[in-house]
Amino acid sequence: MTTHLKDTPLVQGTSYDWAEGFKRSLPVAMGYLPAGIAFGVLAQVAGIPVWATVMLSVVLYAGAAQYACIPMLSAGLPIGSMATNIAAINLRHIFYGMPLLQSLPQNKLAKTYCLFALTDETFSVMTSMPTELRQALILPISFFNQMWWVVAGAIGFMIGSTLNDLIPHLDFALVCLFAILAYEQFQSVKRYFPIGIAVISLIIASLFTSNWVLLMAISICMLLILARGLCIQRNMKGVSSDQ
Question: CB under 8 Å to 133, separation ≥6 — which residues?
Fold first, then answer.
């Protein structure tokens, strides 16, 4: 079956499939719209101005960090304290670009934007598709995913506390989206190791701290991944030396 899609060239030798990117962003939109609306509602209830709410979605663009920003902004915490907390929450994003380095755009501006917009959901969508399709879709998917999030936050702010009174615990929509995407990625990849180290790291981190669970769990995950990589490398050397 042949599909005819409109490609829009950004730089010479590179084209982006915007129609297909929009289509592939729709499942993310189903999660981003309620989660983004919830963020806008909570921001409005907390007294954050509309321009700051929209700018957080444009400049920060990190669901969990934006939710965490609401009480910090309301409490008037120093910028340094907020930056430290946001950096801890978003530390995992450092590793998202590694599996997609070969799929990033050639244009420096487009490459920078794609690295900035590489959220959990975008990473999940990109890594679940064939490698040969990624370069043509990474920019459109990144753009449309952020568009859904920005629009949803603005809608939520306009609705305000009315929706918050009708539907409590709106912020749980983001957790549901993470769970669904994790399940879909597992169905595509069928690897138990990431789930195992995530559960083990979370349990260990919960035993030692309650304030820095995420940061400690990520650090333990890194150590376990490195240890596994070293073991695989050592086994491969042993096999090659035996041959």
Answer: none
CA distance 53 to 57: 7
**Domain total in the chain:** 2
* Alpha-carbon distances of 73 from 64, 67, 163, rounded to whole Å: 14, 10, 22
Question: Angle at the Cα of 29 (from 23 to 32), degrees rounded to 5?
Answer: 160
* Confidence at residue 4, expressed as pLDDT on a 0 to 100 scale: 44
pLDDT at 203: 92
Give a yes or no: residue 2 inside a domain: no
- In the numeric block, the tokens 């609306």 are attached to 37
Question: How far is residue 79's CA from residue 111's CA, in Å, rounded to a whole number?
Answer: 28
Instruction: Look at residue 1 and tell me if it is in a domain.
Output: no
DSSP assignment letter at 161:
H
Q: Do 217 and 104 fall into the same domain? A: no
Maximum Cα interatomic distance, the chain, rounded to a whole number of Å: 71
pLDDT at 13 over 50: no
pTM higher than 0.85, yes or no? no
- pLDDT tens-place string over residues 35-60: 888 889 888 888 899 999 999 999 99
Helices (H), 90-130: 108-116, 120-127
Average pLDDT, stretch 176-190?
A: 72
Pair 147, 90: CB distance under 8 Å:
no
Residue 171 DSSP label: T
Clarify whether residues 104 and 220 are in a common domain. no
